[in-house]
Amino acid sequence: MEGNGFTRRGVLRAGALGAAASALPLVNVHGQTSGGRLALGLWDHWVPAGNDEMRRIVMDWGQKNKVEIQLDFITSVGNKNLLTIAAESQAKQGHDMLSFPTWEVHAKSELLEPMDDIMGRLSGKYGALNPIVEYLAKVEGKWRAVPAISGSQNKPALGRMDLLKQHAGIDIQAMFPANANPGSTAGNWNWDTFLKAAEASHKAGFSFGLPIGQFTDATDWIGSLFRSFGAELVNSKGDITAKSDNVRKVLEYAKQLCTFLPGDVFSWDDASNNRALISGKSALIFNPPSAWAVAKRDAPQVAEQCWSFPAPAGAQGRFTPYLPYFWGVWSFSRNKGAAKALVEYLSQREQAELMVKASNGYDIPPFTSMTDFKTWETEGPPPGVVYNYPVKPHHNSQQFIACYPAPPEIAVQMYNQGIQAKMIARVVQNNETPDRAIAWAEREIEGFKRG
Amino acid sequence: MSQGTLSVPAAPAAAPPRGGALKRLSRRNSTVAFLLTLPLILLILGLVVYPFLYALYLSMLNKRMTRFIGWENFTFLLGRETFWNVVFQSVLFAVSAVLLKALIGFVLAHVLHALPSKGQRKWRGMLLVPWVIPPAISTLAWWWLFDPSYSAFNWALMGIGVDPVPWLGQAGWARFSVILVNVWYGSPFFMIMYLAALKSVPDQLYEAAAIDGASGWQKLRYVTFPMMRNIISITVLFSLIVTFANFDIVRILTNGGPQDTTHVFATYAFQVGIQSGDIPLGASVSLFMFPLLAVFAIFTLRGVNKRSKEMA
């Protein structure tokens, strides 16, 4: 011992100090977690900064409320989030709170904690909600989840200003500028104008990138197309109403439109339309601003010409494709109180604004009163590119989910099996008559009605 | 019964038990064998038997999983047009892919066998590459080759003035594409199994056949093929089971489209069960593979047993 300069007393003293020092954080941690432990499974955001901001907000809340947080970001790639939900609902254990995609609240409603108290307070504070979130999250008169900000998205038109002006003669920026005063041509933005623009762009070699496969981007824009024609396949009572003139009309319209689309759109996935726009091959797609955000990084000359604007209107109105997420708390959660408190905290305007900012405007809050955040005005280039991404009152548009108003247990199957896209594919690829495609859809939907 | 078990001498009645019954039990070969296979038995019980029984239980529940409905899910599926398309596609996919894999594997094995041993190892290694890469990754590479807008194949075709092919956008081409990728992935497995079988055929048989004046075809027909029949049967059975249950290739390349024409049991079960929230129906779809494969397995294994007895 003499040789290395350590004395027995010194070692003992250092040991005692070390033990005391190491015990301090334990006490501290215990003090921090008197609100218990909370396991969260939130949606893994496409925009990486979205996760960082969410983590910061949640951890801050945890610290203030003395709740120990375990936070997992679960990707929707490969439906990992659906698998997690299915597994936890079977095992009756797992996270306390999860992000539930569009249709999952209805599917798991019996295992979800009622959220009427939170929704009552939020509605009182922030006003009207869009009817689609009510359709998706209110089951037998009870809110079973709270519409989330993170991950909820619109899919309006995202077009190239230069190409549409040059080849289709449409100035989309003048039609829907980055302010509340739409141009005089906005009233003419309907599916007939859209068809002419699609034809002109196709002839110029910049076909619209509209997928008609079995992925959500296809289902969403096609759902809005059907709705704006008044083409309803199943009504809110669950009756099959596919055999109608409006359905025939929309199928005939889609057949015309397909002649101006790339021949392979029937196999496009959710990334194909993004690539079509980013590569400069397409003049218009229906998408959230993620395609523009990638273009900003990879093809800035394309991004500078991008502009978000509402979907065209049809005889029954204008409908913007909408895909919301929800925050739900399992009924078997061990810390329901803390989970619900966190959900309410995340739904406040201040947190919503932070999430929207971090996601470059991608996230869409469920309250109309939250569509005025600065981010949507200032994001660019070009400045205001996403101003019209949230639905604004002057758009005269409604957020819409494909297959609404069919009862959700039927609609989810119609949605995931791409019934409307398949009807179009039958008419276009198989040369079937609209009536034959309708008869096929009726048989399919009949099967979805089983309890 | 092993010699060891039979030759355990009976202890004299008056003698005290030395080590007891436990010791005697542990000395038995059958006990040792059981203990050695126990981990595998537990694995099979946990990862095969239990999930199978649980799937069977799930398939007999209603959509909300609140009520027992017996065979209703199965009878419902039998009345669905889309389900029969899935059955047709699954059979087409599995049978054609397995036959092609067997044929290509057979040819490759013979080519490799004929190579001098010095270069054989290098070729064997290279030909095994498709089988070694995880299919989810290699299928992504194939997807890039077939990509609707930026297909590398189409780019090459256009370079020689041929119109682009809708690899994944039209039913016929999409079916061809998923089968092609499966064949590419699975052929090396057949090759390596057949190569092992070829190497075990005694050279004396070929020498005897040569003395009898047999041609190359006759050696293949009357020597090689009979000696390989068991390996061929078992490989085909094994591959058929795996191919029938394939998920990743179809899921990544086509997601079952266009118009459900490339769905196989597993992808359709996933779409119905997980994506559309009908887990009992999804379980029923996946269980339809079981009787089909069971019938095939029984016939194949019976043939193998029969031939083994004949050879013995």
Automatic annotation (TrEMBL), chain A:
It is found in: Periplasm. Its main location: periplasm. InterPro entries: Bact_solute-bd_prot1, SBP, TAT_signal. It comes from the Bacteria. Pfam families: SBP_bac_1. One of its GO terms (cellular component) is periplasmic space. Belongs to the bacterial solute-binding protein 1 family. This is ABC transporter substrate-binding protein. It comes from Teichococcus aestuarii.
From TrEMBL, chain B:
Residues 87-300 form the ABC transmembrane type-1 domain. The keyword Cell membrane applies. Pfam families: BPD_transp_1. Its main location: membrane. It is a multi-pass membrane protein. Keywords: Cell membrane, Membrane, Transmembrane, Transmembrane helix, Transport. Gene3D superfamilies: MetI-like. GO terms for cellular component: plasma membrane. It is found in: Cell membrane. Belongs to the binding-protein-dependent transport system permease family. This is ABC transporter permease.
